[in-house]
Amino acid sequence: MKLVTLLRFALVALLLTISTAVVSAQSFDEILSKAHEGDAQSQLVVAKAYFKGESVAHDLVVAHEWLNKSASQGNAEAQYLLGYCYEDGVGVTKDPAAATQWYRKASDAGYDEAQCALAICYETGLGVEENQAEANRLYLLAAEQGNLVAQYNLGYNYSYGVGFAKDMTQAIKWYTLAAEQGDEDAQAEVAKYYYQTQGSDSPEVKRYFGAAARKGVAWAQTMVGDMYFYGEGVEPSYHKAVSWYSKAASQGDVEGIANYGLCLYMGYGVQQNPYMGMQLLVAAAEEGSAMAQFNVGFAYLDDGDPVEALKWFRLSAKQNYPEAQAYIGYCYFYGQGVTLNYYEAVKWFKLAADQGNLLGKGCLGVCYYFGTGVTRSTEKGLKLMRESARGGCVEAQDALRSLGCSW
Fold it and tell me: How far apart are alpha carbons 346 and 363 in whole angstroms?
C-alpha cells in the first residue's frame, strides 16, 4: 500500500504544532507583535496558534489569514500548509488548483514536504493533469532530503514499475531508507524482499519483519507467524505462530485468517476447535486464499467428499498452489470424485513437482517407475522418489521401502 494518505496525518500534525522553542523564548504577545510588524515566521506561528486554539481562541478563518500573510512573503512552510488548507478545505473552500499553486511555490523553494505533496497531486491528478514522470521527479527531490513518504513511494514505484522501469535494486534502496526512519510498511517490504531472495536466515528478515509486525502491519504479522510455524530463522513454536496469526487475523489479513483457522482446525499451538477453524478457513478461501482453498478441499477429501474437495483444489490450483496440484493428481490417479485418468494425474503431479512439491515429485516418481500414464523409466522414477523421500515425504519413503530401495 502506498503512503499517499500518510501525508495527511503529517500535514495535520504540522498545522496543530507550535514550535516550543519559539514560544518558550518569547511570550505569545511578543510573537503576535512581530507578526503585525510583518515577520513571516512569527505570522506562521500565530497561524498555527489559531489553528490549534493555543494562547488564542480556535479560529480557522483567522488562522488562514495569518498563514496567507506568511506564505505571501515567501515562507515555504506557510506556503506548503496553505496548499494543504486549499486541498482539504481547512478554513477555506476546497480549491485543488490553488492547492497545487501553493505547493509549487514551496516546492520551488526546496521544501521537501511540498515536493512530496505536489508529487502526489501529479500522481493522482489533483488540481493538475496526471503526470507520473513529474511525480517521480518530485518524489526524488523530496526523498533525497530524507522525506519518508517520498522515499516509500519511490520504493513502491520502482518495485511495481510505476513511471519507471521495474528496478528492485532501486526499490529496496528507497524502501530501506524509509524503513530506517521507522516506517512499518517499508520495513515489511524490505523484509519480504530479503525473505524471497536470501531466505529466512537473513538478518534483515528478522529485523524488519519483527519491527513491522510489532507496529501492527498485518501481513508482516502473518509472515512472522509463518517463521515460527516452520522454524525459519527462529526456534519453531506453534504457540508463538498462533499468537501472530491471531493478531493478523484480527486485522482482517486473509492469510492470517487462513493460518489461524488451520491452527484451530488441527490444534496447532491452541486448543483444537475444528468447527471454528473450518469457518475461518472457508472465509479465507472465499476471499481467495489459495492455502485456505487447499485446506478446505483437504478437509472435504478427508470427510469422504472428493467432489467438493476437487472444487476447492481446482480453485487453489488456479493460483498455482503446488499442494493443490498434487492432490488433483491424486484424485485422478485413484478416481476420487473424477473418472480415473493416469495421464491427467501425471500432468498434475508434474505441475506440482516442477514447483518443488515433495508429494508431487514422489507420485510422479512412482508413475515413471511403473510406467503409469507416462513412458516407463525406473531410473527417473527412483531419482524422483529419492529426492522426495530425502526431503521428508513419508509417502515416497513408504514407496521406496516397499520396493526394497534406500534413499
Answer: 8
